[in-house]
Design brief:
740 residues; alpha/beta; Rossmann fold; six-stranded parallel sheet; 19 helices; 16 strands; binds CIS-heme D hydroxychlorin gamma-spirolactone; Catalase_sf; catalase activity; Catalase
């Protein structure tokens, strides 16, 4: 019988961790960490070292076929532990990923609040953000059409403050009591548990029709916001109205917003669909990859503030979570910045076990009477009990960094050991009294409340169309066409006529043309007249186009460089260096992941490049742009390869910038069949469509990517600029995006 001694197995050892962004929280987490090393040895949970992890104790006979013994504590423990590894996944937002980081306050708002985290600009507050989809199970794909969760935990010196937000500033429903209904309707249907992580089905759209309050939200969900390019390129919104109270006891209503430094960008639908199969972990990997490469994602932290005295000054109710606070009426004031700078050490104990509660607030921050928020405050604590157990706040990732002292006791899996003879207050030892105001106790705002106890909604809560029109009016033409395409896709998946017919009719309340076009696409009615006149108003901040970074950047963008045997090394090296210099990530893609030589390179020189991936392994969908350097043999080989041709056509169809030099220009021309343009310097180009070409790939022609401006002349500058614009929308407007 063989006995295998494992080489790297574990006794307790404190892991060494990077200090960046770690702060007090990571220092605290380190105390609970173990790391397997060559010197550590496998033990049972009760500490005894084990001789094997492979062979169950058995009665051995001559043929070595005897029965196994239930006596074996090591085998039983191993199987028991495995049998109980799963905990319930989150009832919504089950699929997600997260990272650690830092919140820095640039500007104190002490005139609004006495919260330390919003007044002390010298602090670096440790944070954890978990991003998620809403509908899918834990193992579902990242790029499905859905709302994205954006949950921020700030480990402040005064306690944990959670902002449990989304990437869309509003919600489907107004009253928390409807939450189980909207989620039941959106999740897989009960009779067959289909579809997974999709809103494209009868029940979802039936609910949307039956609840006019959801109208504004489904317009957002059907827009490009529903298919973000990256968690790093989406906004976050606290959605609900909270309150801020200052030292004088004055109160303001507030909404919290996070705006990404990289701009707000989306995938295109065909790409999102393909990625769901080609790389279901696309968003998860994207976040980890960026942090690993030091391209730390950042968001500006903003507040919208309304004094109590102005609560009723608007044509919408400011406590209605299905309404935005339009930025032209209530501007965003940016006061700080969030940065993610550290990946998790272990997914389960950190990303899976982190638990958020809207009710987690710190002194200076309070709730409003928003009926959605009030219900959420009950729900989150409750759900953690079934997911993690009553002592879930003692789990390392959830522990505040400040002292936690109270007389809550016992319960399953209690960790903390509370010493002393008493477990109640007041007590004869005067042990552990409540805090005074001066000691930082949470001060309840003395809100006057008068009213009739009844179930009711105000008139403003019953108006559901005005802001849906505002949103739709504010979109660019391209974004509007995406809403039409998304609705057409979704309603096409509804096979009960009553569902798509009624919904199509409802769209006429927002925009008659939209309703008629959707009706035509899905076989629904084509309404003759608008259900409501469109007020024609627009507001800033609703279109994603409003968020292109003022200084163009391609930092952390994934760029594929396609080569084959005999590629042009001058063009390759210049492009590769330029991509790196602009903090983007170049990936070499070849026909095979085996060494490739440049044109004229001696195969015995040992200089060959081994591609990062081959065409089949990483498709064009996984990159933001592609580059094809020239080289006679290389281009001939690419031209003869169907996958390479498809790569170029697909990237073009997904509106991605394409750069080609030398012989590759003809290859791209052939693949795309675009009209030729001759520039003053004699080089052919298709720059109007984000295709940047250069016949002569001599170093002096390649330009120097130091600054990137719209008028940039150099080949590389033009390419970098095209990538910084995310996608070439003009192709779509001109109907050239069909070659996917
Ligand atoms: Fe919720 C999770 C965001 C309304 C009940 N919600 C959850 C998460 C996010 C949101 C980001 C995932 C947190 C994580 O990563 O662990 N939810 C929202 C937003 C809402 C909203 C922005 C509207 C403003 N939610 C909402 C209502 C209820 C819930 C009205 C119940 C009445 N949400 C839950 C929950 C979850 C949850 C069932 C599941 C897992 C969890 O809480 O921790 O309690």
């Amino acid at each position: 019988m063989s006995h295998i001694v494992p080489e790297t197995v574990g006794t307790v050892k404190h892991a060494v961790m990077g200090s960046k962004g770690s702060g007090a929280k990571v220092a605290q987490l380190e105390q609970d960490m173990v790391e397997p090393t060559k010197d550590s040895r496998i033990t049972a949970d009760f500490g005894t070292k084990q001789a094997t992890t492979d062979d169950w104790l058995k009665v051995n006979n001559e043929q070595q076929t005897g029965p196994m013994l239930i006596e074996d504590p090591f085998a039983r423990e191993k199987i028991h532990r495995f049998d109980h590894e799963r905990i319930p996944e989150r009832v919504v937002h089950a699929r997600g990923t997260g990272a650690f980081g830092t919140f820095r306050l640039h500007e104190s708002i002490e005139e609004l609040t006495n919260a330390g985290v919003l007044t002390d600009t010298s602090r670096e507050t440790p944070i954890f953000i978990r991003f998620s989809t809403v509908l899918g199970s834990r193992g579902s794909a990242d790029t499905v059409r859905d709302v994205r969760g954006f949950a921020v935990k700030m480990y402040t010196e005064e306690g944990n403050w959670d902002i449990v937000g989304n990437n869309i500033p509003i919600f489907f429903i107004q009253d928390a009591m409807k939450f189980p209904d909207v989620i039941h309707a959106a999740k897989p249907e009960p009779h067959n548990e289909v579809p997974q992580a999709q809103s494209a089905h009868n029940n979802f759209w039936d609910f949307m029709y039956m609840h006019p309050e959801a109208t504004h939200m489904y317009m957002w969900a059907m827009s490009d916001r529903g298919i973000p390019r990256s968690y790093r390129m989406m906004q976050g919104f606290g959605v609900n109205a909270f309150t801020l109270t200052n030292a004088k006891g004055e109160r303001h209503f507030v909404k919290f917003t996070f705006t990404p430094e990289l701009g707000v960008h989306s995938l295109v639908w065909d790409e999102a669909l393909k990625l769901a199969g080609q790389d279901p972990d696309f968003h998860r990997k994207d976040l980890m990859e960026a942090i690993e490469h030091g391209a730390y994602p950042k968001w500006k932290f903003g507040i919208q503030v309304i004094p109590e005295s102005r609560e009723h000054d608007f044509d919408f109710d400011i406590l209605d979570a299905t309404k935005v606070w339009p930025e032209d009426q209530i501007p965003i004031r940016y006061i700080g910045e969030l940065e993610l700078n550290r990946n998790v050490d272990e997914f389960f104990t950190q990303t899976e076990q982190i638990a958020f509660c809207t009710s987690h607030i710190v002194p200076g921050i309070g709730f409003s009477d928003d009926p959605l928020l009030q219900g959420r405050n009950f729900s989150y604590f409750d759900t953690q009990i079934s997911r993690l157990g009553i002592n879930w706040e003692e789990i390392p990732i959830n522990k505040p960094v400040c002292p936690v002292m109270n007389f809550n006791r016992d319960g399953a899996m209690r960790h903390r050991i509370s010493k002393g003879k008493v477990n109640y207050w007041p007590n004869r030892f005067e042990a552990q009294p409540p805090a005074s105001k001066a000691e930082g106790a949470y001060q309840q705002y003395p809100q006057k409340v008068v009213g009739i106890k009844e179930r009711a909604r105000s008139a403003k809560f019953r108006e559901h169309v005005s802001q849906a029109q505002l949103f739709y009016n504010s979109l660019s033409e391209v974004e509007k066409s995406h809403v039409l395409a998304a609705l057409s896709f979704e309603l096409d998946h509804c096979d009960e006529a009553i569902v798509y017919e009624r919904l199509t009719t409802r769209l006429a309340d927002i925009d008659l043309n939209l309703a008629r076009s959707v009706g035509e696409m899905v076989g629904g009615p084509r309404p003759e007249k608008a259900g409501r006149d469109n007020h024609g108003r627009k507001a800033p901040g609703l279109s994603q186009m409003d968020y292109l970074p003022k200084t163009p950047t391609i930092a952390s963008r994934r760029i594929a460089i396609l080569i084959s045997e005999g590629y042009d090394s001058v063009a390759f090296n210049a492009t590769y260096a330029a991509i790196k210099a602009a903090s983007a990530l170049p990936f070499v893609i070849g026909r095979r992941r085996s060494p490739i030589h440049a044109e004229g390179e001696d195969p015995s020189s040992g200089k060959a490049i081994t591609p990062d991936h081959h065409f089949e392994g990483q498709r064009s969908t996984m990159f933001d742009a592609i580059v094809i350097p020239g080289g006679k043999a290389s281009v001939a080989s690419l031209s003869a390869n169907g996958r390479a041709l498809h790569y170029v056509r697909e990237a073009f169809g997904h509106l991605k910038p394409i750069a080609a030099t030398g012989e590759a220009v003809d290859f791209v021309n052939k693949a795309l069949q675009l009209p030729q343009v001759t520039t003053s310097s004699g080089h052919e180009a298709h720059e109007s469509y984000g295709v940047v070409t250069l016949r002569e790939a001599k170093p002096e022609h390649l330009g120097d990517v130091v600054t990137v401006a719209k008028e940039a002349k150099g080949f590389l500058e033009k390419f970098v600029y095209a990538v910084s614009q995310h996608r070439c929308w003009q192709r779509e407007l001109d109907g050239l995006n069909m070659m996917v």
